[in-house]
Amino acid sequence: MGKLQEFEITFDKNKVVYTPGESISGTVRFKLGQPLQCKAIKVNCNGFCGITSKINETAWSEEEQYFNSTISVADKGTLIQGVQTYPFKFLIPASAPTSFEGNYGKIIYRVRAFIDTPRFAKDYSTEKPFYLLSLLNLNEVPDIWGKCSSAVTQQFTYMLMKTGTVDMKAQTDMKGYTPGQVIQVLTNIHNQSGKATGNMAASLMQRVTYETKRPTYDVRTIAEVEGGVVKAGKEVEWKEQIIVPPLPQSSLAGCELIKIEYYVKVGLKSPDVMLTLPIHIGNVSLDKKLQPCNKAATPSSAKAEDTPALASTPDTVIATTPNVAPRPAPKPAPRPSARSRMSSLNSPSAPPADYHQGAEGGTPINDGFPNKRQSQLVSPHAFSYAPGLFFPHNQQPNGPSTAPSGPMFSGSTGATAPYPPENGAGSMPTPLILPPDYGTSAYPQEAPPSYDASCNT
């Protein structure tokens, strides 16, 4: 059997999976059939990534080193016959990525042991791999909350001349999953053609990109489910589930040569309609308690909701609430007689308060009430009409009053009457409507019939 009968590496507690930042320890054990001259016994721990452009090729076209540590556990001398063990311990860097093995590349971690012998003698070596797992917490992935949805419209030709359209919408219930969870896929297909479609299908896909000079893409179908067809002119809603098997995580943080992506592909076998829904595969599942609130009220909106509506301006209050005065009401002027009221209704209203006394078309302010505004009772019905118009109630057919009276205001403060007086403030008001004078008119040629004649006819 030769001088070296056994040569092996053992990890403490037979542990083979570690996390970045953890230490790995164990022993190197060998058994000799007879004494052996050696220069040194060395133990090496290293991690690297190697990729190639050809499947399962061992000569890497690109490499990336993560760490490489070597220690010497025995110096130059003679190894005696029998079983001997030497301990070792290494610290794994916290930046090392997760182990991975694909068709065009690998991320490898291993511990190797060497027995260096004198010149022309045979060297001995052994190695043992271990695996690194850097947990991917889906709750820390950006934009991970909510549903993943997509839609596509495809127009196709069938029977050489006819054309049809298929509308397809699909969504997943989440954007991140862990192995063992179920992906809920909801698909809506509207077949706007005269031909039935092929079977519906949903697949969980893995796409691995190897960053060589010309990137290599390895796309594989992990799981697939199939549904029925959609008849001509029909709309179908299809619900399906896909169980996530044990898979490498989406992110290989710390590795620049390999990129892993997952997505759900939904499509029809005919016509060729397909859409993709990107998802993440991690190690720590989503926790709904950590989901941020979508309806966060802004301070401005909260203030607007808590603050009641502002009161209307005084003018608006007058127009909407006739019984409430916009300001403390002054002492009213002496109420004129009925004949005086009839005269004032046909008189123009007073000018605005900022006009000076004696303005053209205005009425002097009553000297008996300095710094007081004149007021009058206004019918609530007057506010439904245009400013400046006043429609009194219970009018008596009396002539104009000769007694002087204070200025009368219409429903709109400051509005002028449609027909201002011509002879000053003290003259008789001009009638609003004058009857036509048929006697002086050139047309018609004949005088109009009298009132009695019109009533008889």
TrEMBL record:
Ranges where the Arrestin C-terminal-like domain occurs: 162-286
Stretches with biased composition (Pro residues): 325-335
Annotated protein name in UniProt: Arrestin C-terminal-like domain-containing protein
Composition bias type Polar residues, residue spans: 313-323, 393-415
InterPro entries from the UniProt entry: Arrestin-like_C, Arrestin-like_N, Arrestin_C-like, Arrestin_domain-protein, Ig_E-set
Organism encoding this protein: Perca fluviatilis (European perch)
SMART domains named in the record: Arrestin_C
Listed GO biological process terms: nervous system development; protein transport
PANTHER family on file: ARRESTIN DOMAIN CONTAINING PROTEIN, ARRESTIN DOMAIN-CONTAINING PROTEIN 1
MF annotations from Gene Ontology: ubiquitin protein ligase binding; ubiquitin-like ligase-substrate adaptor activity
Region of interest: Disordered: 292-376, 388-457
One Gene Ontology CC term in the entry: cytoplasm
Pfam family, one: Arrestin_N
Family stated for the protein in its record: Belongs to the arrestin family.
